[in-house]
Amino acid sequence: MSRMCHEYLEKVYAYLDGEMSDADCRALQAHLESCPPCMAAYQRDARLKELVRRSCACEPAPTELRERIVTYIHTSVTVVRRQA
């Protein structure tokens, strides 16, 4: 994956959560449509988010917890990619 791919993939959760500007959404969508590996990663993350949403429908998680989880995921993915 290219550096551009990594930059887009770091924004996937913001995209899924509706936290991006319209211009950034269009740019990410265009990239996903032209990059099968990124589309696969996006679809995986979207399915995971939906599964968590259905499993935890009782109460939203605290913002601090979400931030810790996202940081942990990014750190873990970076470490795994560097080792591979």
How would you describe what is shown here?
Pfam families: zf-HC2. This is Mycothiol system anti-sigma-R factor. Keywords: Transcription, Transcription regulation. The chain has 84 residues and is an all-alpha fold. It has one domain (3-74): Arc Repressor Mutant, subunit A (Orthogonal Bundle). It contains five helices and no strands. The chain has helices spanning 3-9, 12-16, 22-34, 36-55, 63-83. Helix 3 (22-34) packs across helix 4 (36-55). The model has no long low-confidence stretch (mean pLDDT 85).
List keywords for this structure.
transcription regulation; Arc Repressor Mutant, subunit A; transcription; 5 helices; mainly alpha; 84 residues; Anti_sigma_zinc_sf
Outline: globular
Task: Determine Rg (CA atoms, Å).
Answer: 14 Å
Strand content: under 5%
Mean pLDDT: 85
The stretches of 5 or more residues where confidence is low (pLDDT under 50) are none
Secondary-structure-derived class: mainly alpha
Distance between the termini: 13 Å
Number of strands: 0
What is the CATH T-level topology? Arc Repressor Mutant, subunit A
**What is the string of helix and strand elements?**
HHHHH
CATH class: Mainly Alpha
Helical content stands at over 70%
Q: What is the count of distinct domains?
A: 1
- What's the architecture in CATH terms? Orthogonal Bundle
**Helix count, per DSSP?**
5
Topology:
Blueprint: H1 3-9, H2 12-16, H3 22-34, H4 36-55, H5 63-83
Briefly characterize the structure.
The chain is mainly alpha-helical and 84 residues long. It contains five helices and no strands.
